[in-house]
TrEMBL record:
Domain of life: Bacteria
Name of the protein: DNA-binding transcriptional LysR family regulator
Xref: SUPFAM superfamilies: Periplasmic binding protein-like II, Winged helix' DNA-binding domain
PROSITE patterns for the chain: HTH_LYSR
MF term (GO), any: DNA binding
InterPro entries (UniProt xref): LysR_HTH_N, LysR_subst-bd, WH-like_DNA-bd_sf, WH_DNA-bd_sf
Highest classification ranks of the organism: Bacteria, Pseudomonadati, Pseudomonadota, Betaproteobacteria, Burkholderiales
Natural source organism: Pelomonas aquatica
This protein's UniProt keywords: DNA-binding, Transcription, Transcription regulation
Residue ranges occupied by any HTH lysR-type domain in the UniProt entry: 11-68
Family: Belongs to the LysR transcriptional regulatory family.
Length: 323
């Protein structure tokens, strides 16, 4: 048997999954407990993999499971291969039944959770042949700005809701308009900008810290919105944490108007007009065009998204649920 065939035999899904588990848990002992094997057996399997590939995958000088550069590369590529294997299995099941075994939804953080959960509730309430709910498992991801596109482009999601309309990353992506999302520039009542006459100038805003949500893209170029040159920035992970920072007077910033309407009405935040005038962004929903008819689960969601009422709710119904 050739050395190339030895390498192929070593790179099994089980071996790649083992690498992922060791890296995720941080130690051979923890990984062995999760997999249900003794640590010595796991160590032996890693050494067999290293021998077959003729590389060191873990740094032996460390007490923890520290990957070498080669090990890190195998981990990244192995995860990608496992995702592709899952995609093949999902496609086979979809062809057989018409329903996907799993459907991953990725939403931008600006999408209203209440409306989204209403849709998921309706999906699970569907009754198909035999009277049971759809067999498709739903998986939800929440991303920010370019991170939403990235999840769709790299096959980590089947349907993206709330992607910026100005980005058209690939001819294999089909986009439809979701609607317009208005943004409100807000500060706490005790913030220095609260009592200044409107509209606020760029110079006035630049003198104060802005609260920005970090773009969650890992591979695509991240987007930065609303930060002025030289301005102090407090970066937070979600819009909910941005609203909390604004309420505490830690900075200023723009957020989707429906998300803070109740705070503005109650006087907890002050909405200020700025030099930019009215700010609104056009939002899309998008899915990958494979050249084949969508599976039944994706078709169900696309059918619901054709409703203007549903699309409007996804942009505006923030009351009662902020995740």
């Amino acid at each position: 048997m050739s050395h190339a065939q030895d390498k192929r035999r070593a790179l099994t899904p089980e071996a790649l999954s083992m690498m992922d588990t060791i890296a995720r848990t941080g130690s051979f002992a923890a990984a062995a407990r999760e997999i249900g094997r003794v640590p010595s057996a796991l160590t032996y399997s890693v050494r067999q993999l290293e021998d077959a590939l003729d590389v060191l995958l873990f740094d032996r000088s460390s007490r923890q499971a520290v990957l070498t550069a080669a090990g890190q590369e195998l981990l990244v590529e192995g995860r990608r291969l496992l995702q592709e294997l899952d995609a093949v299995a999902n496609r086979v099941r979809r062809i057989a039944t018409g329903w996907e075994s799993e459907l991953t939804l990725v939403i931008d953080d600006a999408i209203a959770r209440r409306a989204l959960f209403d849709l998921m509730e309706a999906f699970y309430a569907e009754r198909i042949d035999g009277g049971g709910p759809p067999p498709t498992r739903l998986k939800l991801r929440v991303e920010v700005l370019a991170g939403t596109w990235e999840a769709l482009l790299h096959g980590q999601a089947d349907l993206a809701i709330g992607v910026p309309a100005q980005q058209l990353p690939s001819s294999s992506i089909h986009c439809e308009a979701a609607g317009e999302l208005e943004f409100a520039f807000c500060v706490a009542p005790h913030h220095p900008l609260a009592d200044l006459p409107e509209p606020l100038s760029a110079g006035q805003i630049a003198e104060h810290r802005i609260v920005a949500v970090a773009d969650s893209a890992r591979l695509l170029a991240p987007m930065t919105v609303g930060v002025l040159p030289g301005q102090d920035v407090l970066t937070v992970p979600t819009l909910a944490t941005k609203v909390e920072a604004l309420l505490r007077g830690l900075g200023c910033g723009s957020v989707p108007a429906p998300m803070v309407r109740r705070h503005v009405d109650a006087g907890r935040l002050v909405r200020k007009a700025t030099y930019e005038g009215r700010r609104a962004g056009k939002m899309n929903y998008a899915w990958r065009d494979t050249g084949h008819a969508p599976g039944k689960a994706l078709a169900w969601w696309l059918d619901r998204l054709r409703s203007e009422t549903t699309r409007k709710a996804l942009l505006e119904q923030h009351e009662g649920l902020l995740l």
